[in-house]
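Good day; I would like, with your permission, to put a structural problem before you. What I wish to show you is a protein chain and, alongside it, a tokenised description of its three-dimensional fold. I would ask you to consider whether the tokens describe a fold that such a sequence might reasonably adopt. You will find the record immediately after this paragraph:
***
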Amino acid sequence: MAGGIYIGSTAGYSGKNMVVMGIGLRLQKEGFNVGYMKPVGAMPMDIDGKLGDEDAHFVQEVLGLEEDPTDVTPVVVTQDFKVKAFSGQCDQLMPDIVRAYQKLAEKRDAMVVAGSGSMYSGRYCQLDGVNVVRELGIKCVVIDRLQKELNYDYLVVLKDTLGDALAGVILNDIPPNFMPEVDGLIKPFLEHNDVKVVGVIPKDPLMGAIKVGDLAERLGGKIISAHNKADKVVENFLIGTMQVENFMTHFRKNKNSAVIVGGDRSDVQLVALEGNCPCLVLTGNLYPNDIILTRSEVLSIPIIVVRDDTYTVAKKMEAILSRHKLRAVIKIKQGAQLVSSSIDFEYLKEQMGL
């Protein structure tokens, strides 16, 4: 029977997929036959006529696995499911998860099990991470992604709750200026409370980046110039609503930022183009003048025109850049590499009984 590990996190969008794929690919490279499961899925998707989970399907593709989606994700949360669950009709689901896990683990050396949301998501139907880990009888590693600060209290409470089942934690997205605090304060504090830090993954701007072409699609806009540069990468964005002088100061500091600006602000548009921004996003469904269009073609900087106003586009942009799924191959390679070089794999394998 395979040695298993459950990868959970303190919140949604913490990098579970990246870590799961990183661990899976690394174990495969070391010659292990790796299986994958995501017991509870929240992104319903039709996979050859069966209900599966979009993330789980993607991870399976990356790991080169082809298992029945109903085994990989026995529980997919739909609106219908929630209605049933809130009225108490979901006591029979955990046995399905355990059965599916045993079936998948039978022919594997190692099983990587992915959580959904946080470790307590799904508590309304007893399918939270804490419960799943206990029922499957495997160890778990919890990711805490730095967002303003780390959830060190949450991690210690999880240790109180899970005891030995918590094999350790991974701190993700740590920028260079925060490393001294992690090494000097947070790691010693966690270790003092018996919480093993299995890895610290540094912040990597590439991981949050998105291509101009994908961005246009997600914003519901269209690219009107320099179409051949739609695969340029955007890491950040700036809003060009201020005076040109102020804008120039901000722009110098944030080189790889797409610039969101009203279609009528040709002064800011020109500064952004001459400063070589990755792309311009023009709001209010206004097309630029000919000078701007010509410069954009000459400098090969795409312009996206969108219908929404600047504020709405900025809100959307923020959501897209913080949640942009690891879809591009370079990112998977980059992410797997990051995970590989940042995690104590010998310890992890020991915890999985490999």
